[in-house]
Amino acid sequence: MKKVLFVDDDPSLINGLKRMLRPLRKEWDMHFVLSGQEALELLSESHFDVIVSDMRMPGINGAELLARVRKLYPHMIRIILSGYSDQALLLKAVRPAHQFLSKPCDAETLKKTVFRVSKIQDILNSSEVKKIIAQVDSLPSLPHLYREITGKLEQEDTAIKDIGEIIQKDIGMSAQILKLVNSSFFGFYNNISSPVQAATLLGLDTIKTLVLSIGIFSSLKYDKEMKIPFQSLWNHSALTASLAKHIAQLISDDKIFISDAYLAGFLHDIGILILASKLPEKYQQVLSRVYDNNENIWEVEQKVLGTSHAEIGAYLLGLWGFSDNTIEAIIRHHKPEVFGDEPKSLIMVLHLADSFAHHLDPAIKELAMAGLNQKYLREINHIEQAKEWFAECKGLYEEGAM
Ligand SMILES: [Fe+2]
Ligand SMILES: [Fe+2]
């Protein structure tokens, strides 16, 4: 049973929550407190899985509370509940909170959010790795893209479109901006997968605050000794995104499907970025084994870390509220056969795009080892189709159209 802590200084709101969530008392062990201080006391006494906190409270506010919880109880999932008029204050919670809900929050949204994050906890079985990932409050960017965006934001006459286009080129920036716009707090219609659209919706002033004062973006720092091929990871992600979009267009004219395919392609290896930036020494060991013994990257990760970059990336994006389709496709991008999928799914598109990208771009050999899964393609009856698609993608790639 998941243990969930609700914090709000308004007793009538707490009573409302208790009434609303009563039917769930067999599934969740729920506790309710009226201040940040009380919350910290209770947390010091027993283990909780999820915290849902109000933002504006006397004493310790929601952002401060979640920042402390992140430090003291890194395994916990942190959700902020905030009034719309508190938007400026809410930005302070952007880093410590995994998800944002707007007040008043209906029972359905609250239930769905807590259920989803609890379910996502099952993706990973190593509690050590879970702790590390749940603590991630920002992801680093390629240094030149970080310099470019801060430079542009400091200028007076910057257009939001230019900002969106820089964000779109960076894995970390894209994931963080989409985490925000897809939260129910901002009230945009769900499922925005374009970082350019996300930037436009948030607006220049909000992005300026987030980047220049809150510091949601940062520049990758790495030891030159370490052979982590970050630039290759970015190139591979961009190529996989273009290929996924193209394959999606060949099988469907559904705009959302095509845009989801592009995003899944761009973020599919985000787990490598998380591991390489948060556990650099360990990840260096993984890569050395991959280079020296020609072993498969996700198999070595499994041996060294007990999990692979596919699950790690999916786990963080799940905590950040990304769609189930995107998360599933990312978890299975190397091993689509295990679950016997439907053809024409995002899972198939991503698996093909990732494998095509590895075949087409020799510069990323170090991250390669992703072969096409023939057994899977046979099962879904797509072997011939995949050959045709590969020939077409190869043509486009050689023409420079990818
Ligand atoms: Fe991968
Ligand atoms: Fe990949």
Task: Write up what this structure looks like.
There is one protein chain. By secondary structure, the chain is an alpha/beta fold. It has three domains: 2-123, Response regulator (Rossmann fold), CATH 3.40.50; 143-219, no CATH class; 230-399, Orthogonal Bundle (Hypothetical protein af1432), CATH 1.10.3210. It is built from 21 helices and seven strands. It has helices spanning 11-21, 36-45, 62-72, 87-90, 107-120, 127-135, 143-154, 160-169, 171-181, 195-202, 204-213, 230-251, 255-267, 270-278, 280-293, 297-305, 309-319, 324-331, 346-360, 374-379, 383-399, and strands spanning 2-7, 28-33, 50-54, 77-83, 99-103, 140-141, 218-219. The strands form two sheets. A five-stranded parallel beta sheet has the order 2-1-3-4-5, sandwiched between helices. Helix 3 (62-72) links the parallel strand 3 (50-54) and strand 4. Helix 13 (255-267) crosses helix 18 (324-331), helix 13 crosses helix 19 (346-360) and helix 18 crosses helix 19. The protein is globular. The termini are far apart. The model has no long low-confidence stretch (mean pLDDT 89). It binds fe (ii) ion (2 copies). One fe (ii) ion (FE2) is lined by residues 236, 240, 268-269, 354, 370. The site of one fe (ii) ion has 6 residues, from helix 12.
